[in-house]
Amino acid sequence: QVTPAITDGKSPITVRLTVTNTGSRPGADVPQVYVGFQSPIGEPPKRLVAFQKVALNPGEQKLVTMTIDPNANSHPISTWDTASQKWVLAHGKVSVYLARSAGDIASSAFTTVLFPSSGITGDVNGDGVVNCQDLMALKLAFGTRAGQPGFLPTADVDGNGVIDVNDMIAVTRRMTSC
């Protein structure tokens, strides 16, 4: 379970899972949490953001809670922007993978990091200007519907609940620069 399903990128994301020792001897497991960004962001497919060693007796189950803190020094849901030379919060759909290792994914879920709203129609990324960066942000949500992971309300310019070509046209018409 990953909560919240929608976040502003400032509050921690909580991951809960149950670990079970199915063996006949005491043992330990190290559940791991990875995040994955959408391909236009240009990051590796998975990034390790949390893990916890859990000791278990035979047949024992334990509920494990791990937290992804966006404000941590490791910048778990941010990417490095070489132009500005700073960490930038990833927006849109973020995949959360529960795993035994990077190559052994047990399950996955999603959380959506929303852009702040500037109140300007077409300003998808909330920076106060409608430009090419808004088209790139809209691209992250293209094809999503309200309620689906990755849906960005600021990209739904026409308010029909779907991020589609009409929204792209609307943003393009409002662009002041590119």
How would you portray this structure in words?
With 178 residues, this protein is mostly beta strands. The protein contains two helices and twelve strands. Helix 1 runs antiparallel to helix 2. It is elongated, with a radius of gyration of 19 Å.
Blueprint (SSEs and pairs):
Layout: E1 2-3, E2 6-7, E3 13-20, E4 27-29, E5 32-36, E6 47-51, E7 54-56, E8 61-68, E9 78-81, E10 86-89, E11 92-101, E12 104-113, H1 132-141, H2 165-174
Parallel strand pairs: 2-12
Antiparallel strand pairs: 1-3, 3-8, 4-7, 5-6, 5-11, 9-10, 11-12
- The gross shape turns out to be elongated
Strand count, sense and barrel status of the largest sheet are: 5 strands, mixed
Would you count the extended β strands for me?
Answer: 12
Specify the helix fraction band: 10-25%
Descriptors:
178 residues, three-stranded antiparallel beta sheet, elongated, mainly beta
Task: Produce a short descriptive summary.
The protein has helices at residues 132-141, 165-174; strands at residues 2-3, 6-7, 13-20, 27-29, 32-36, 47-51, 54-56, 61-68, 78-81, 86-89, 92-101, 104-113. It is mostly beta strands. The longest helix has 10 residues, at 132-141.
